Amino acid sequence: MIVAGMDIGSITTETVILRDHAILSSVILPTGANSRKAAERSLSAALEKAGLNPEEVTAIVTTGYGRASFPRATKMITEITCHARGAFFVHPQTRTVIDIGGQDSKVIRLDNQGRNVDFQMNDKCAAGTGRFLEVMAHALEVRVEDLGRLSLGAPRTIKISSMCTVFAESEVVSLIAEDQPKEVIIRGLHDSIADRILGMVNRVGIEEKVTLTGGVAKNEGVVRALEERLGVTLYIPPEPQIIGALGAALMARTLLPLPEGKRI
């Protein structure tokens, strides 16, 4: 059985193609202004990468911010369920999932079967997310992919008092005007993100092992700040950004095949 999972986010769209339990392909593309078109492009790219035709896919599950925008989906499933399933699949010892995505962050506690026991989700603003870091990188005139490396070289940190993206950007601009080193400011930003996640973790409760997913998991500065506060070593999947789409594909495997003659 060949299935597809799609995580249609506000910033990026990920697609994973599965045959049984084997990942045939995965792609990460920018969502842009049109979620439906992004989903179409992402699925086409994943199928091409896997060397498959659309009619070979039995079921498609969508998740994420734009999950309702893809009319050819067999089913839509929440991000919490899909991230839990994906994280448990790649690391079955996982009992806590921290996901920091483009526009939201979430903490999910699992049982020993990988089922969601409790969760907290920050979906009211972009504070402490990938979008937050993109805005700060622009203000600092550095590439977002360099933030982690730069913060690791900081001799000290600095307090960032606001987590609102707009106010934090103004605060960063003021710190630059005070000749504070960029590395120190970036470390302060990473510490503020980690403090925000710590508050969510404390509300859910932490149980090892802890898996970190989402694009921000690629930022080693945020990883270090989180590990210091949580007192654990985080497991980071080889490609942490596709975990939601992987979970969606795994959920698609549990669905009945489409009626004969129906094609995606």
Compact description:
The chain is of the alpha/beta class. The protein folds into 2 domains: 118 residues, 2-Layer Sandwich (Nucleotidyltransferase, domain 5); 142 residues, 2-Layer Sandwich (Nucleotidyltransferase, domain 5), CATH 3.30.420.40. Strands 3-2-1-4-5 form a 5-stranded mixed β-sheet. The chain has a 4-stranded mixed β-sheet with strand order 8-7-6-9, sandwiched between helices.
Describe the structure.
The chain is α/β, with parallel strands linked by helices and 264 residues long. It folds into 2 domains: 1-91 and 238-264, ATPase, nucleotide binding domain (Nucleotidyltransferase, domain 5, 2-Layer Sandwich), CATH 3.30.420.40; 95-236, Nucleotidyltransferase, domain 5 (2-Layer Sandwich). It has 8 helices and 9 strands. A 5-stranded mixed beta sheet has the order 3-2-1-4-5. A 4-stranded mixed beta sheet has the order 8-7-6-9, with helices on both faces. α2 (79-90) crosses α8 (243-252). 47% of the residues are buried. The mean pLDDT is 93.
Helix/strand layout:
Elements: E1 2-8, E2 12-19, E3 22-30, H1 35-50, E4 59-63, E5 75-76, H2 79-90, E6 96-100, E7 105-110, E8 116-122, H3 130-140, H4 147-152, H5 165-177, H6 182-204, E9 210-213, H7 220-230, H8 243-252
Parallel strand pairs: 1-4, 4-5, 6-9
Antiparallel strand pairs: 1-2, 2-3, 6-7, 7-8
Helix pairs in contact: 2-8, 3-5, 6-7
The CATH homologous superfamily of the largest domain is called ATPase, nucleotide binding domain
Mean pLDDT: 93
Helical content, roughly? 25-40%
If classified by CATH, what would the architecture of the largest domain be? 2-Layer Sandwich
End-to-end Cα distance: 14 Å
